[in-house]
Design brief:
single chain; alpha+beta; Arc Repressor Mutant, subunit A
Length: 438
């Protein structure tokens, strides 16, 4: 079984000595899942179990446990290798859309120029060489556009301005070919790790209140909060929590396993606003100039395609191009003309659909954020009833730190060595038992 990456990261963040509750709260994982993962990882990575007097278990891992796992699992080695390969492949995929678009425009323009030159040559032959002209509007227009394109992609284009922007912002600026992909498909889901962040924040809130909370303290981190507090059911299930009813009929929740810690440490950082914030979708992270250029190339592709179509509709083109140097290129372009036009239409249609989809989605995200913010504000000014609930919940608040002095057994040492080392402690325990029996 390949170890869960979230568990590995949590162990490293928690300094390699953890309880199940530590990992579950840190990573937002189900307690049972975290326990199974820790046991399997301890077995495979040379971890050790430390058992306290209370029966609580602490997991201790060597700091090189990732190296141990890599040597054992070819899947992990392959994952790391594939991650590097995929990074290169994905970059190639990203820039390929821009390359295909530029190649499409360039191919059609060259075909247009070849057709115009052939038509002018044919006219000259019919007119006996008189009135030779290469300055027609149909010729100059493509030549001007081609010049623009190569100017746009000149390595020295506007270099000083871009350099100043990098120096002032310190942020990475995607190149134009990357911005084409961003214009088409965006830059991924900004809330891809929302559920992980949600339960990690909830675990942190529970830890901050020593394992005992009321529903209103969790409400700023869920999407919908109802009076029946049904939103607490998945939280109880994930962290093995228990509800308790106060004498006034109010429900509070406590989580015994999140009260046990391997060491004293500060609580995880929660949102400074005190609630879960979803990030709005961005159309693109490319700058305005890059988006304008990317859209402009899409429009240019369609315009050039229609110019080429108007020329190809001339039935005499095949005869005019016969024997000309660009005949094969024009015929090839004509054979894939509809593919080139379709690519240009899709190139502009996909961002347009995505734009309206984002416009419809972001207001819903804003509404959920606002609702969570209002619940967080209400929590800062609790009513008398809420104060009573919080006071009752504090009765179940506990924090148990399992230090080295609390350990009675560990798999690090031989059992006989542990008994010799702890003989004084064992003698005291036996003495206490004899006195209690008497």
């Amino acid at each position: 079984m390949i170890p869960n990456p979230k568990i590995l990261k949590s162990i490293e963040k928690l300094d390699y000595r953890v309880t199940v509750g530590d990992v579950a709260a840190q990573a937002g994982l189900e307690l049972n899942f975290a326990q199974e993962g820790l046991l399997a990882l301890a077995s495979e990575a040379g971890g050790h179990l430390q058992v306290a007097d209370s029966g609580d278990v602490v997991y201790l891992f060597p700091k090189n446990f990732r190296s141990i796992l890599r040597n054992k699992y070819w899947q992990l080695r392959w994952q790391q290798t594939w991650a590097k390969i995929w990074k290169v492949l994905f970059y190639i995929i990203r820039i390929s859309f821009g390359i295909v678009l530029i190649a499409s425009i360039a191919l059609m323009m060259v075909a247009i120029i070849a057709i115009v030159i052939a038509m002018n040559s044919s006219n000259d032959e019919r007119e006996g060489g008189r009135g030779r002209s290469y300055g027609g509007g149909g010729f100059f227009m493509p030549r001007f556009w081609i010049g623009d394109i190569f100017w746009w992609f000149d390595p020295g284009y506007n270099r000083r301005r871009l350099q100043r922007r990098r120096e002032t912002s310190g942020n990475y600026q995607m190149n134009f070919l990357e911005s084409v992909f961003s214009f088409l498909f965006g830059d991924g889901d900004p809330n891809a790790d929302l559920e992980e962040n949600r339960y990690s924040a909830i675990g942190s809130v529970i830890r901050a209140h020593k394992g005992a909370v009321v529903g209103e303290q969790i409400a700023p981190y869920v999407d919908k909060a109802d009076e029946d507090e049904d939103y607490m059911i998945p939280v109880l299930s994930r962290f093995n929590g228990y509800p308790e009813v106060s004498p006034q009929g109010q429900i509070v929740y406590y989580f015994p396993e999140l009260q046990v810690m391997a060491s004293q440490r500060g609580t995880q950082s929660i949102s400074s606003m005190g609630y879960l914030q979803e990030k709005p979708w961005l159309f693109s992270q490319a700058n305005g100039n890059q988006i304008t250029m990317a859209a402009g190339l899409g429009v240019l592709n369609i315009i050039v395609a229609f110019v080429l179509q108007s020329l190809l509709q001339n039935g005499a083109i095949a005869e005019i191009m016969s024997g000309q140097s660009g005949e094969s290129l024009v015929m090839f372009t004509a054979s894939i003309f509809w593919l080139l036009l379709s690519y240009g239409i899709l190139y502009l249609s996909i961002p347009l659909v995505r734009y309206f989809w984002i416009k419809g989605r972001n207001p819903k995200i804003a509404n959920r954020n606002e609702a969570r913010e209002q619940r967080a504000i209400a929590l800062k000014k609790p009513s008398q009833s809420l104060q009573q609930k919080i006071s009752y919940a504090s009765q179940f608040a506990r924090q148990k730190i399992i230090g080295q002095k609390d350990i009675t057994y560990t798999t690090e040492d031989d059992l006989l060595d542990q008994n010799l080392r702890d003989r004084d402690k064992i003698d005291r325990e036996w003495q206490q038992r004899l006195e209690s029996d008497s």
